[in-house]
Design goal:
Strand order of the largest sheet of chain A: 1-2-4-3
CATH topology of the domain at 36-197 and 257-267 in chain A: NADH Oxidase
Shape of chain A: globular
CATH class of the domain at 36-197 and 257-267 in chain A: Alpha Beta
Oligomer: homodimer
Helix content of chain A: 40-55%
Radius of gyration of chain A: 20 Å
CATH architecture of the domain at 36-197 and 257-267 in chain A: 3-Layer(aba) Sandwich
Chain lengths: 273, 273
């Protein structure tokens, strides 16, 4: 795999200058910088049980606050179920095409059960925003490890936030008990070499990395708009970055149903006190 | 680095049987499974600017929903500031000892600014729980990449959720504007070889991995209690897993101030609609 540090930086930042890459370069860094979203999968080619086990071992190896392990995951391989989930997630066909769809869950049910087995009459702490946040962080750390592990095995992945468009329907499809919430999906499969995807340039480092204290310099955002417009144009996409962000946040309709997320969390037992 | 798959599985699951590791094993998987929390750092040994840049490049290479990049990070090296942050985070001395403390931020300020620069009169979408969740997920995916990248370079890290004990004080210390919230910290430094840490066994895979639909089998939790009690005893720690979980969630006092997280988020502009 070992792409050089210089080449990796160039692709990741779309040619923007970001300072010297380090003298020491690792397989891990090379794999991370080469990340790209894969939404097209070869028709043949399953993901074996051994590979699935490795992805979950990677996920479980991620840090978890106080070893609480406030997450679970459902591995969906059944065709009909993937098709139903694809429909619930904004009719994204690639979910039905990928051989494996992992649905990552914020799981406070297990901790509540363990708390009660330890003789506590309530698990009041789990009613707070803090507990929900702990579970969201835990599941994201775990899933990122699984995604990178999959990429290191030559597989392609993409995160699917759109399962939050209809979280209650997704919960019903997966038989989730109260206090377990579907946070995002991750498709896993063998990339279709006929439809390769490019590394997407990110904001210049100075826009996200602050030294000692936070500063916000609008100039970074303007230079990025230029870089990203070039990238989108090369992909045949019409819109720039600012317009895309504005579509998402400019009005409630950009949330595509996710404006009901709070109500859905409450419905599933995440009390957000 | 390349520890074998079998040895990695054995350590990560404390000898529990979890099925066959995959035939294909990668540097990435080996690095992930070898993760351990490092809270003791060598007194000498800085983290260079080039290394910091590599960690941030790794973080920025993580997936981000719709390329929104709803996070930022403050790199704190200043001794006095690290000491103040150590105090705010429950007097955890290792924050002052590590040469670098990264404070990871959920950042809706940049997206609001970009939305307004694109001509939108409001950024109403950013007022919802969904926007906050997007930023929490984004920052966790990014930070996990940075942590693994650091480990691949021979550095040690540990996540610090305790900055949420006093998030408003942390925000003031770092000069955070509205709509930017400190989610967790990450210490980075050269591990003290005189105080090595062990790989912590996780729940058996069957407890977190569900096939097609969710099931919860209490037997997994009992077997884990035994495994983990053995681990804690070997580290000279008195309590088992269930008691630790119960301490955290059995009552509000286990949250150590984080029961005010919702109010703090609202105070900083995260409206959680």
């Amino acid at each position: 795999m070992s792409v050089s540090a210089e080449a990796s930086y160039r692709l990741r930042y779309g040619g923007q200058v970001v300072g010297e890459p380090p003298a020491q370069w690792t397989e891990v860094l090379a794999q991370q910088l080469a990340h790209r979203s894969v939404r097209r999968y070869r028709a043949e080619g399953e993901v074996s049980d051994e590979t699935l086990s490795a992805l979950i071992a990677a996920a479980q190896s991620a840090p978890t606050s106080g070893n609480l392990q406030l997450w679970s995951v459902v591995a969906v391989r059944n065709d009909a179920r993937r098709r139903r989930l694809a429909e619930l997630a904004g009719e994204q066909e690639f979910i039905a095409q990928a051989p494996l769809f992992l649905v990552w869950l914020a799981d406070l049910a297990r901790a509540r059960q363990v708390t009660s087995s330890a003789g506590s009459s309530t698990a009041e702490g789990a009613d707070f925003v803090e507990a929900a946040l702990l579970s969201f962080i835990d599941v994201a750390l775990a899933a990122q490890n699984a995604s990178l592990a999959a990429e290191s095995l030559g597989l392609g992945t993409v995160f699917v936030g759109a399962i939050r468009n209809k979280p209650l329907e997704v919960a019903a499809e997966l038989g989730l008990p109260p206090n377990v919430f579907p946070v995002f999906g991750l498709t896993v499969g063998h990339p279709d070499e006929l439809a390769p995807t490019a590394v997407k340039p990110r904001l210049p480092q100075d826009a996200v990395l602050h030294k000692e204290q936070y500063t916000l310099d609008a100039a970074h955002l303007e230079s990025y708009e230029d870089v990203l417009n070039g990238f989108y144009a090369s992909e045949g996409l019409p819109e720039g970055w600012a317009k895309r962000v504005a579509h998402r946040f400019g009005s409630v309709s950009g949330l595509k149903g996710r404006e009901h997320l709070r109500a859905a969390l409450l419905d599933r037992g995440f009390q957000l006190r």
